[in-house]
Amino acid sequence: MFLLVVDDDALSRELLTLLLELEGYAVAVAASGEEAVARLSSPGPLEPQPGVVLADIQMPGLSGPELALALRPLLASGTLLFAMSGSQPRPDLLEGFDGFLLKPFKITDLQSMISSGQTLVAGREEPVPESAIAHHIDSSPATVGHTPGELPHPTQNDGILDVEIYTKLRELMPTEQLGQMYALCMEDSRKRIVHMRALAAAGDDVEFRREAHAVKGGCGMIGATELYLLSEAAERDGLAVQSPVQSPGQEATATRTSGVTAMLDRLSLACDRLERILMEHMRE
């Protein structure tokens, strides 16, 4: 089957492509909704019509229901159009899609969606069932409930690396390729953390959260559980995070700065811990 992945984050596109190809799918990518529309409007002479389009719905530009509306006339009647995101979206953002996957998800979960979605497409004149729209992956790293400013502390069960995901990836690819994939994710995460420090200094909360969202998406796909949870907290709290230790009379600005710095320091340390654990696993 031929799939089109639409995602503005380069790392997420690369990881999804790798994982899908390892499962035997042919994959093409688009870096934006506009690029996906252009690609489908003027396909290459030998390029098949996709059987599934998997589109992130938190992209700049054409996204969400507007993207679904633009893509649908360009797709064959049997093509499935799935939305994906690292955060649970409002129901209205999923209008026009055949189903939804919450990042990080397993390829087997996508395959289950494809199997059930084929029945939905056959009866497209009927409304898409709520169960398909609300579908999400129960096996993704748990969302820890915290108050604003509270950083999650991974438990023994959460860990730093999801060994089940790591083991599955190791079964699918050579050790060298696996190491390159994790190294790519770590390099991307570190670059984004540096950028987040600059965004915090500039007071740019929107872009700060966007970068945290990107870290969360990439780390979730490879089972980097601690980084996933910490970046999830960074995305949720943004620059409004409070310092874990607030002295009486401390200025609010200083408190926020201290809290964000602590959050970013923990993200950096989580990268270091993950690298050490990966080195140990790959020596086994």
What do these coordinates show?
With 284 residues, the chain is α/β, with parallel strands linked by helices. The chain folds into 2 domains: 2-133, Response regulator (Rossmann fold); 163-283, Four Helix Bundle (Hemerythrin (Met), subunit A). 53% of the residues lie in helices and 9% in strands. The chain contains 10 helices and 5 strands; from the N terminus they run βαβαβαββααααααα. The chain has helices at residues 10-22, 33-41, 64-71, 107-122, 130-133, 163-172, 175-202, 205-221, 225-237, 252-283, and strands at 2-6, 26-30, 52-56, 80-85, 99-102. It has a 5-stranded parallel β-sheet. α1 (10-22) links the parallel β1 (2-6) and β2. α9 (225-237) packs antiparallel against α10 (252-283). The longest helix is centred in the last third of the chain and has 32 residues, at 252-283. It is globular and about 50 Å long. The two termini are 35 Å apart. 38% of the residues are buried. Residues 118-158 and 245-250 have low confidence and may be disordered.
Short précis:
By secondary structure, this protein is α/β, with parallel strands linked by helices. The protein is built from ten helices and five strands; from the N terminus they run βαβαβαββααααααα.
